[in-house]
Amino acid sequence: MTQATQQALYSSVVRDRHSVRKYDPSVTISKEELTEILAEATLAPSGANIQPWRFLIINDPALKATLLPIARNQEQVVQASAIIAVLADTQADSKIDQIYGAAVQAGYMTEQAKEQLIQNMKWYYANMPEEVKRSLLVDSGLVSMQIMLSAKARGYDTVAMGGYDKPAFKEAFGISERYQSVMLIAIGKAAQEAHPTVRLPIEDITFWNAISE
């Protein structure tokens, strides 16, 4: 595949992705395909490759009905094939031995580098909790965007949802305080096209080497 072809394919996915709010309720997405979408999305970068994102997939109709009032009665909750709840694990450092150990086995990292990184990240999580929380949200935002792009590349539509009662969501689904609720992503097939939107001109929002206002 040529660079021009790759660029054209990427540009098509990015330009065709829109926030869809009306879905065909007859469309289902298999567990296998949802898993593949998430696996592609988790190729996103994260601080020190800590991969703090966690996912709760809600595709049971009864559970979607439970979620509906929590999500301010946004109808995509029950119409979409599934809702992907993106969570951030405030104890993500619990998996660093697994992550860095696999990197050593793959030949990507030395044992010495692994031990130093583990020591650094354990200190970071123990001593900078507010900064950790901010970094978790950044990393979770990166993986969320990749979920939506991966879905679009496969012909599915999505919408990111932040307007829901996060405490009520966590209570209803038994999610502990260990996890931050970042967003909900509805995924399925559009029953109605998304309404068009505009973007600010790039020259109005880009500065070179210094902010001039």
TrEMBL record:
Stretches assigned to the Nitroreductase domain: 14-189
Gene3D superfamilies recorded: NADH Oxidase
Keywords per UniProt: Oxidoreductase
Keyword GTP-binding: no
One matching Pfam family: Nitroreductase
Gene Ontology molecular functions: oxidoreductase activity
Designated name of the protein: Nitroreductase family protein
Coiled coil: none
Family: Belongs to the nitroreductase family.
